[in-house]
Each structure stands twice: as C-alpha cells, then as structure tokens.
Amino acid sequence: MKVDFRFINVGNIPEILPLMQDFTQHKYADEVHEERFVAMFAHEYDCVGLYVEDKIIGLCGLWYQTRHYSGKSCELDHFYIKPEYQGKGVGTQFINWLGDRLKSQGYEALELNAYKENTASHRLYAREGFEHLGLHFVKRL
After folding, report:
1. Can you give the pLDDT at residue 13?
2. Closest CA to 94 of 52, 40, 136
3. Residue 130 and residue 110: Cα distance in Å, rounded?
4. Which domains does the chain have, with CATH numbers?
5. Is 85 helix (H, G, I), strand (E, B) or coil?
6. How would residue 92 be classed by pLDDT, with cut points 50, 70 and 90?
7. pLDDT tens-digit profile of 95-129?
8. Which of 65, 86, 93, 95 is 20–30 Å from 102 (CA)?
9. Which of 50, 94, 52 is closest to 74 using CA atoms?
C-alpha cells in the first residue's frame, strides 16, 4: 500500500478533527481540539497526515526538543491510524520515513508515550526498536 506523508498546517485543522475525535473517543469538542492545535502550532510542533490515494487515514504530531537523556529528539504525539489500516505496515512506513528524515537533520532519537491499554501499539514500537524507559504520569489541575 502506497502511503504519502504530508505536513499539516493550521489551515488543515478541520481535516484532522474527525481523526482526533476517533483517537480521543470523542472526549473533547471540536472547538477544544482546534484551540489546542492552534496553540501547539505556535510552538516547536508539526503534524503529519498519512494519506492513501488523497484520503487521510492517520496523523501524528511531532514535538522537537533536546533532552539530557536522548539528545536532539522528536517526540511522536497522538499517533493514530484508522483501524481498517492498522496492521498493514502503515505505522512502520511512517516511522521509517520520519526516522530517515530526522536523522538527515541531525536528530538522535525518536520518543513517544503510548496508552497502557494499547498493547498493539506497544508491539509495533518494540519491533521498530523503541525501548520502554519509564511511565508517563499526568496530574489534572
């Protein structure tokens, strides 16, 4: 399956809202997602859409930083592929494309957090060479 990877900008936010609704199980209103995406794009953030025949089938946010334990790195955020495209090598294609692109720009690592219940994604990340270093905690204010 031929997958195209395209950077999304603020003007494309309406296109990715249905995917974010699926990803978050409709936990937040579109307006909340849109407000957050606008704020995220104002920082060290990119978003990539995954397309098959000009149809968006997935997305992934990218945060850029330098960290003491990983150096110059990119953190994958809200990496989501529609269920009917999961298990078909799309995630592997994306990770390889992104890794090659970032390595050529001097990046040293890819990072991510994964929901503990999403064991299928854990298997993908392990196959792709990600190490399980710790746990991610959130305290709601």
Report:
1. 96
2. 52
3. 8
4. 4-127 (3.40.630.30)
5. helix
6. very high
7. 999 999 999 999 999 999 998 999 999 999 999 99
8. 86
9. 94
Query: Which residues are within 8 A (CB) of 114 and not within 5 positions of it... i.e. 6 or more apart?
Result: 121, 122, 125
pTM of the model: 0.93
DSSP assignment letter at 43: S
Question: Could you write out the DSSP letters of every residue in 44-56?
Answer: SEEEEEEEETTEE
Strands 55-67 and 71-81: antiparallel
The token duo for 51 is 């397309």
- Please report, as a single letter, which amino acid is at residue 116: K
Structure tokens at 28: 């937040």
